Every structure is written in structure tokens, then in C-alpha cells.
Amino acid sequence: MALPDPARRLLMEHLGRHSLIFSPNLLDTNLVSGQADPALAQAQIVFGQPDPRALLDSPNIEWVHLTSAGYERYDNAPFRKAMLDRGTIVTNSSSVYCEPCAQHALAMMLAFARQLPAALLNQSSSRQWPAATLRADSRLLRQQTVVILGYGHIARRLVELLAPFNLRMIVVRRNVAGDETISALPETRLAEVLPLADHVMNLLPGGEATRHYMDASRFGDMKPSAYFYNIGRGSTVDQAALLEALRAGRIAAAYLDVMDPEPLPPDHPLWSTPNCFITPHTAGGHDDEHLNLVRHFLDRLEEYESGLPLLDRIM
Is domain 97-278 in CATH 3.40.50.720, yes or no? Predict the structure, then answer.
């Protein structure tokens, strides 16, 4: 990854006995996979977004640390088996992104509740003074119901941020572990709770198991006054079904930070669909993001050298 100078200096100054090899094909983003790189043959530790096939062909690698929270391209049976057979550790950067993503989700919930998109649209168009309408349509989050899909780092932090608003919170996950701090249900009961939700917050990871998880049937289970949010992965939503649900008024509005594909083409109808609001995969962004990625890696490096369990281990 092409790190800004402060983050690059921090990395180089705290590697201790390790030598550092930069790929000749550095990426400007951690949202895409790197290219196959012969330098992997010299490495024991990899930091970034390495090409999965190249990792399979690099048996000397002991540890892979991803500069993202998502790891869909690595999450398949052959890759997991290869890493397990070799004893290769794989970690991600979930702890770097849980706070900004949770704050982003909260911001959009509050924006809808306080009619900020409608006020912004008025300012950029007719510039009327619809105070009475906006006041009447404004809501308090208190006593509303939010259904959260998934219970990873972002969901856990969002639950903490939402606690002062006195919402009813329900998390739906594949398997209820018993360590949840709010009401938790298995996904087999999703159809029971979707009709209760004022807010449906999708924080699911990508992968075949979650592809089009929110489909026409599940949008149909939501009530017309409910809001839908996606800060998980674009592939988890059937976007054609979402488009139809918005156009037909079967849900009130949608906020999307992730899409399928990305970038979303300029002529895609979701850009111009009323009550659909899009940010271009920015939920995890923050001003010291790259420094935090390097700090997170260096902390894991200390754990690795000390033989301690690594935080954010995924394989």
C-alpha cells in the first residue's frame, strides 16, 4: 500500500530487527487486491492486500496482516485450508475501522430522524421555508426499534453509541453466542423481527453465505416507515430489489455506503432514486486512518514476536 509519508516513516522506524520490502506496484486504496508480486517469495510477514493466489504460491509466509476490516476475497475454503495446513496466521484491521463505521451509521440514523436530507435537498433546490413540515416529520430515536444484522466489531461499537438514545436493539446473527449485550436472535427468526424495525442496519460481511441476503422477500417484510442502511458489503444486498422497494414506497429510505459494483456507475438508477442516499465507501475513513493502520500492525507485530494471541485474527 502507498502509505503517506508520516505513516511510512512510522512503519520503518519501528520494525526493529525486521527488513522491509515494498512492492513495486503499490496501491492507493485498501479496497482492491494487490497484484501478484515476486517479492512475496522473500517474505515471512505480509502487510497490505496481497493477491490471494500469490499467497497460495508463497509457502514461507508465516503471517498475513490485512489493511482492511473486510476479507471477502480470502474467505473461501481452499484458502482457509491452505493457511491452516501451513500454520499461517491471517489478521485484519477491524479494530481500526469499528469506531468510524459505527459513528457513520449513527450519523445517518440521526440525519434521517432529524430530517437533514430533506433540509439539504430544500437548500439545494427551491429554498423554501418548510419549517412546519420538517418539524412534524422529525423524530426522536427514543423507543424506536433497530434490527442489526451481524455482530462484529462495528455492531458492538454501534450498540454502545446507541445506548443513550434508549432504543430497542435486536441483533440477528447466524449463531447466538450468549455474549451479546443486547437481545440476540438467530437468523432463522429474522422474518419475525423485520416487521418491527424502524431501522434495519446491515453490517454483514461479504461472501457466498451472505450474497443478496437482503432480497425482495426481506425488503417486503419491512414496514413502509422503516429505514435501511448498508455499511457491510454491497454484495449482501439485491440492489434491484432495493430499487423496487424504494420506488414502490415499501420502505421509507435507504442509506448506502457500500455498493455492488464499486465504483457505482454514474448512470446507475440508485443515484437518482428518491430517498436513496449514497456515500462512496467512506464510512471507515478518518483523518489519521493510515497512521492508525500502521500502529495497529505494529501492535500486532509485538504480539507476534512475543508469542501472544493476535488481536483481530480471522484465520
Answer: yes
Cell numbers 432529524 correspond to: 114
**Angle subtended at Cα 207 by Cα 309 and Cα 239, rounded to the nearest 5 degrees:** 140
Distance CA 234, CA 212 (A): 9
Q: What is the pLDDT of residues 258-314, one digit of tens each?
A: 999 999 999 999 999 999 999 999 999 999 999 999 999 999 999 999 999 999 999
CATH 3.40.50.720 is right for the domain spanning 5-92+286-306: yes
- Portions of the chain given CATH number 3.40.50.720: 5-92+286-306, 97-278
Q: What pTM was computed for the model?
A: 0.94
Q: Rounded to whole angstroms, how far apart are CA atoms 270 and 24? A: 37
Q: Is the peptide bond before 261 cis (omega within 30 degrees of 0)?
A: yes
CA distance 168 to 233: 25
**CA 45: distance to chain centroid?**
25
- How many helices (H) and strands (E) the chain has is answered by 11, 10
